[in-house]
Amino acid sequence: MRIELSDSPGALARVTVRLASADCNVLALQVIPVPGGVLDEIVVQAAPGVLPADLIDAIRTEGGKCVGITRADVRDLVDEPTAVLRAAGMALSDPSRTAEALRQVLSADAVTHGEAADGQVQLGDLAARRGWSPFTQVELARGQALLDLLDAPAPAMRGVLSDDGVALVLRPGTNDDEDAVAGLHTRCSMKTLFNRYHSGMRTVPRRWLHRLLNPPRGTTMLAQCADQVVALGQLLHTGTPTSAEVSLLVEDSWQRRGVGTALLGALAADARAAGFQELVAWCLPSETSLVRTAARAGLDTTTRREDGLLRVSIAPRGRALSNPIATVVAEKTR
């Protein structure tokens, strides 16, 4: 029950005594700040035969007002900060469950994607509804904080384990990496380079290195093992506010070991934090490795032929873990 009481000493105590006289046990109490005062939320185990109307009458008898009442379950007895942290952890590990995490944080009846209708509130691209009691500003701020956490920029340097347990670091590229990136291209086969650049080349021209590491409209991320750069990924703005172009280059000996999956997942997390709704990649028609990599990262894709190439559209918010680094680490440390 959510109740409003007069701002006087002992008001809540008198309500709990009144409930106790009806053989009702107060199991939990939460005080919620609201404009002009507070709202008391209490979880009550009602005695057999006691109806919700009886509880409302007991509150009114002590000068209180019942703002909302609904059936509770065991989850309502969990410490509030603990419940919020658990919901945040669920959404971080599986972005497809963001709506469910927000529903738990808000104690909402339902949270759906789309515009809010009458009786709903809008948080980001989600609409929340609760019939038994209006949302308070504190609750809405808590829900928005959850969404802000999920959209926060990823850390600059991230650790990852390959599928066979080798430790790597994902980090932004800098001018000091020119020699390392040149070495990466030298160790790549002509087939790998052709799939990436769609032209026959044995090594990358030196004048390209600065542009690879400092793209004028995007970012470059490197995967490094010990002192060697073994993979490179780029996220480039296309001029369309909701779309960015993504590309990967993974050294032959590191392919099919989860490095490209981790790199693409990290780039997708950065793209989501930047507000992009689509990642676009251009592949040779016979090259499907990027589609497989996106699937391993839990990212949905659609493809179509365009200008003799395969256009791959990737949704940066995945159905599974959008940042596969954490997945790989969890698998190896379990």
TrEMBL record:
The keyword Transferase applies. It holds the Pfam family Acetyltransf_1. Residues 1-74 form the ACT domain. Residues 168-334 form the N-acetyltransferase domain. InterPro entries: ACT-like_dom_sf, ACT_dom, Acyl_CoA_acyltransferase, Bact_Acetyltransf, GNAT_dom. Keywords: Acyltransferase, Transferase. PROSITE patterns: ACT (PS51671), GNAT (PS51186). This is Acetyltransferase (GNAT) family protein. It comes from Lentzea flava.
